[in-house]
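Q: Is it fine to ask for two folds in a single conversation?
A: Yes, each is treated on its own. Send the first.
Q: Here.
A: Result:
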Amino acid sequence: MEKSKSMEYLSINLKAYRLAAKLTQEDLAEKIGVSAQAIINLENQLNWIKSDTLDKIADLFDVEPACLLKAPSSVVGELDEKTKMDALNSLSVDYLYYLEKRLNHSFKK
């Protein structure tokens, strides 16, 4: 999988898990020992994640690190219904943008 696709998936999944856990970017940063700016950069696809940071986030959310790099639809499917709705409602703009990009890419093939 290309790095930019993984970054896009990580961005969406990180935000979904963070919002589902009702954590701010600052809360998440504090819990895993990074700056809030690092979380902002990850969610905005500005920086690639370090492996130790990926492991800390995965441990916090009790998922495999690879799960955070999967297509969002597969990750959202693993959440319980209330968490899924909370995350999708919070992500609606980002997720719709992601789906729009995927659909546009599909039509170009």
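Q: Second one now.
A: Result:
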Amino acid sequence: MSRDALMRGLRALPVNMRTVLVLRYFDDMADAEIAAALGIRESTVRSQAARGLAKLRAAADDKAAGPTGRGTR
């Protein structure tokens, strides 16, 4: 996935998922730090991160499948 595609995927996510992913992977914050900064539980941080990553993966898979759904290879 290119950086541009990643950024488009992040922008398409709900703001809570996007915020957690940005803080975790771009700002390198721990789950406890993210939870404290956002006023949410650590378990919520983990679930939002997992769901956000799943959505990004699904979007990447859809993109890789191309318009025919057969992939680009």
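Q: Anything structural to flag on that second result?
A: Two points. The first helix runs from residue 3 to 12. Helices lie at 3-12, 15-26, 31-38, 42-65.
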